[in-house]
């Protein structure tokens, strides 16, 4: 294996959370510097195309575009599309952002009554007065910054293509405001937020408090806004859309490079973490539309009713791991956990095939992945990706490991019953398509 270049630790550190990366704290993300160094070390000509099929909060698309590359970012969660779009905002508008936020607040305060005559998803957590406060700000954002919107629409009803990076910026500020007032519903698990039971007291806040918090979020985002463009090329272009990694909306051999972090095999429910934002967009936390998003996420803890079996194309390491899970003596090994792992590897392999289809000859893939355990059984995810890659005629050119002291495995205290340590290893794999 040739060491083509030094690989930087992808982990976001406290000191590394600067600029646009501070706008929205997303658990599943790597640092902007990691993306920047990966692109620089690849010697990819400016103007080439870079894709992230699990784009999340948009770090890959942001840095790629700022460096002069055409970027494509996809995610199954519509909340992430708004956040990634916000990160496209050009530094030249920074001086006008506070003034626009004042216009939004002035307009929001002129709305006297509720304009929504149906049950609002935000009522899951907030009183009607508070819901009106959030919706009035949203209504002002839509009427000032989104073309052809009269009255109010839930964001899920609006084509994301017409949502500018400027409008998305203020939506992210509104997302932050939501999370600020829902702090009491956070759990020890950073990817989970509680939904109050029927009859439990809801958050009661005034429209004045909401507007003030929204303005503070805008100010914090403005203060963190730095110019990180490294090229004179203006707006090389970025496509950011809702799409599944198993069905990428691109033609064959269109992409020069992939930088991404596939969902870890740790049964993290990223959708639940964004329930408030999804509710703001018009999705009901307890309805089928949320369940549909959860079911489509690779790595979801939910079980989809479909008969899956181990495929030889997943490789021998994967097959051996699944067989050990099947035969494990612990409760639900075969009835739940095996099915969950089958779902995961089925989704990962389909995604790798789609990446292969869209990747040009000699194109590079950089993956950030993490190992895990089922009880005492080690999931050697690096070997599994390597075997799947070999079957797709990919060559592993570089692998670098980084201990992850703050992984989700450390939250599950039951893991210590089966093994001496619960630390995970994050690995960066660099493949080249032959």
UniProtKB/TrEMBL annotation:
The keyword Signal does not apply. Its EC number is 2.1.1.113. One of its GO terms (molecular function) is site-specific DNA-methyltransferase (cytosine-N4-specific) activity. It catalyses: a 2'-deoxycytidine in DNA + S-adenosyl-L-methionine = an N(4)-methyl-2'-deoxycytidine in DNA + S-adenosyl-L-homocysteine + H(+). The keyword Membrane does not apply. PROSITE patterns: N4_MTASE. Gene3D superfamilies: Vaccinia Virus protein VP39 (3.40.50.150). It holds the Pfam family N6_N4_Mtase. It comes from the Bacteria. Keywords: DNA-binding, Methyltransferase, Restriction system, S-adenosyl-L-methionine, Transferase. Belongs to the N(4)/N(6)-methyltransferase family. N(4) subfamily. This is site-specific DNA-methyltransferase (cytosine-N(4)-specific). It comes from Desulfosporosinus acidiphilus (strain DSM 22704 / JCM 16185 / SJ4).
């Amino acid at each position: 294996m040739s060491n083509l270049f030094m690989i930087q630790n992808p982990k976001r550190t406290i000191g590394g959370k600067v600029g646009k990366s501070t706008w929205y704290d997303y658990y599943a993300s790597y640092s902007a510097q990691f993306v920047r160094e990966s692109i620089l070390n690849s010697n990819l000509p400016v103007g080439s195309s870079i894709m992230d099929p699990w784009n999340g909060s948009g770090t890959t698309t942001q840095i790629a575009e700022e460096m002069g590359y055409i970027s494509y970012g996809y995610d199954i969660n519509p909340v992430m599309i708004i956040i990634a779009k916000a990160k496209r905002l050009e530094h030249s508008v920074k001086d006008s952002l506070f003034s626009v936020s004042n216009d939004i607040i002035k307009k929001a305060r002129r709305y006297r009554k509720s304009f929504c005559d149906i049950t609002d998803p935000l009522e899951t957590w907030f009183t009607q007065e508070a819901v009106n406060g959030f919706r009035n700000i949203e209504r002002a954002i839509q009427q000032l910054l989104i073309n052809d919107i009269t009255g109010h629409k839930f964001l899920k009803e609006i084509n994301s293509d017409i949502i500018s990076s400027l409008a998305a910026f203020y939506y992210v500020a509104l997302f932050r405001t939501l999370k600020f007032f829902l702090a009491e519903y956070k759990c020890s698990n950073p990817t989970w937020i509680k939904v109050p039971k029927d009859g439990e007291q809801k958050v009661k806040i005034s429209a004045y408090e909401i507007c003030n918090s929204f303005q503070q979020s805008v100010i914090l985002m403005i203060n963190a806004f730095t110019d990180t463009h490294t090229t004179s090329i203006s707006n090389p272009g970025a496509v950011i859309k809702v799409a599944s990694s198993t069905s990428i909306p691109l033609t064959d051999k269109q992409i020069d490079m992939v930088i991404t972090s596939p969902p870890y095999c740790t049964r993290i429910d990223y959708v639940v973490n964004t329930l408030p934002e999804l509710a703001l967009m018009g999705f009901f936390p307890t309805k089928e539309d949320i369940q549909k998003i959860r079911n489509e996420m690779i790595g979801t803890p939910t079980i989809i009713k479909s008969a899956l079996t181990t495929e030889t194309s997943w490789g021998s390491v994967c097959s051996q791991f699944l067989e050990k899970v099947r035969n494990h003596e612990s409760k639900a090994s075969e009835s739940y956990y095996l099915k969950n792992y089958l779902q995961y590897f089925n989704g990962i392999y389909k995604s790798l095939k789609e990446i292969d289809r869209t990747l040009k000859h000699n194109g590079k893939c950089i993956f950030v992945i993490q190992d895990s355990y089922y009880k005492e059984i080690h999931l050697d995810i690096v070997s599994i990706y390597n075997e799947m890659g070999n079957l797709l005629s990919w060559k592993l050119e570089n692998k670098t490991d980084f201990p992850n002291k703050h992984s989700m495995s450390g939250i599950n205290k039951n893991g210590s019953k089966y093994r001496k340590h619960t630390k995970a290893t994050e690995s960066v794999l660099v493949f080249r398509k032959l």
